[in-house]
Design a protein that fits this description.
It is built from two helices and no strands. By secondary structure, the protein is mainly α. The protein has one domain. Helix 1 runs antiparallel to helix 2. The longest helix is centred in the C-terminal third of the chain and has 28 residues.
Length: 62
């Protein structure tokens, strides 16, 4: 069985690739698209998992 954390990370990593491509197409700057890739692929899933872990720890989770 796949954990919730793994599903969240996988979804954000898969979403990060097209987001980075769109940012590259819109701005023409690799640096900005790389930052978008990091933000969506690494930072966002970490924040979401931390939030959901906190809800479960407080007893308000599903």
């Amino acid at each position: 069985m796949v954990s919730r954390q793994t599903l969240v990370v996988t979804a954000f990593v898969l979403a990060a690739l097209p987001v980075a491509y769109l940012v590259e197409a819109a701005t023409g700057q690799f640096t900005v698209s790389f930052l978008a890739l990091l933000a969506v692929g690494v930072v966002a899933p970490s924040l979401v998992n931390d939030y959901l872990d906190g809800r479960e720890r407080d007893g308000n989770g599903v």
